[in-house]
Amino acid sequence: MENRKLRMGMIGGGQGSFIGAVHRSAALLDGKIDLVCGAFSSRPDVAIDSGKDLALPSDRVYSSFQEMIEKEKELPEDIRMDFVSIVTPNNVHFEPAVLALKNGFHVVIDKPVTFTLQEAEELAKVVEETGMMLCLTHTYVGYPMVKQAKELVQGK
Q1: Is the pTM of this model over 0.85?
Q2: Are 105 and 79 in contact (CB under 8 A)?
Q3: CA–CA distances in Å: residue 2 to residues 76, 78, 94
């Protein structure tokens, strides 16, 4: 297996978004992930400005998640994103996750995985059908206060 950084794309998390910066910081903590592209907002002007703020090349900043997945899929495997981090509002997790999985991209989503149980069940089927990974994060487990509380409960 090739030893290299993973290439992350991000859907959501543009200017004015609190959680996007949190997820980017967490992903970059160990130095094993690079942010290479994004569809940071459903508003094209915000998406473009967000990409500039993050020093991404303009051709890797997209005005929609559909465009991002379509264009990234066309890139050579050694350039395109390896996975996508979805940091949109909870009710906008399902559609980009399904599209990414069906196009060969692994997906990372913060809880809740979807907005409804029906969406979660459908998403589970897509994961099974595609064989792609879907990772569900729980951001709070990384907070020092939560780690300390765990140690207190375990009596350490």
Answers
A1: yes
A2: no
A3: 16, 11, 31
